[in-house]
Design goal:
The chain is an all-alpha fold. It is 64% helix and 0% strand. It has 2 helices and no strands.
Amino acid sequence: MSKKDNIIIPTAFTDVNHADPGTLPTNRQISDNDGTGGGKMNDKYVTHEELELSNEKILHHIDNKFAEMDKRFAEIDKKIDLNTEKVNTKFANQKVWIILTLISVFASAAGIITFISNILK
């Protein structure tokens, strides 16, 4: 036996060959991993399953935000359409009013000219 084979490994038990019932470490005590990345496990490392779940949650959150943005854009689009329709209606009403005013001005002018020409005859 070499000196390398005779290394003493410290354990939590006083007698390696004997252990009382209930004193053996469980898997959780050995790894100190409760499956959540907590405990003595370094939190900067995750399992593939945890990473995939986290990515799915993030992607779901992003999808929800895009859906909210799409809804807001649709609402803004409706408001723009309504405002454009109001402006077009106002412009059309003003256009009709201007045309009617011009017609009445020309009709009045023609009537006045006709009246004056009849008086001067």
